[in-house]
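Memo to structure team: turn this sequence into structure tokens by end of day. - J.P.
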Amino acid sequence: MSNQEKTCWDTFSDILNAGIDRVILYGPAGTGKTYSAMHEQNDGQAFRLTCTDDMTNMDVTGGFLPSSDGGFDFIEGSAIQAWRGHRLVVDEIDKAGGDVFATLLNMTDSDGSATWQHPVTGEVHKPQEGFKVIMTTNVEVIEELPMALIDRFPVRLRIDRPHPNALMTLPSHWREYANRMADAGTERMSLRLFQSMHKLSRQMGEEEASRIILGKRADAFLQAVRIDNFQEVEQRG
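Reply from structure team:
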């Protein structure tokens, strides 16, 4: 496969095949970044964190919760569980608050540097062999992320099109258009939009579903799909 033929998803597969264990996927929303981070070349478990302003370190490393006997038990967070040789997926890293972001920097540092002390036993834990981290973000320019994060994740890949497996869930005559519009700037249309429109179209037809979801853009969509379909038929002929 030549460089011209390779897509971002081919490159992501090559990155994982090379044994890279720290990756940031960035770019337009609704292209399958999270799904691929969870499942691509992953035979083990994947633990997911979705960053928000309200997220706390309890989600990352754990915290105490009431137990059935009236006391409190320490429940491990996703990062600690993933440290046991699994994959940690951190969604929307750009939305993490200051304290959580600092904790995530520690938990996703190189395996030789990251440590965590259990608050009950005092035991010091380190990531085990096989621990991997994939972060996702919808930022368009990677330099918008903090330098401390970029330094820890030297492998960053811009995802500019829907995952091929996700495109296969759409009608065949929509796929080229959906692929094209995923990274179309202000005219962008996410994969989630197409999936919702497809679901609605099964009930009320393609034209009405597109008008409900796309509004004024429906005519342009229907016309583009007809053109794509016509060109495909011509090429086959």
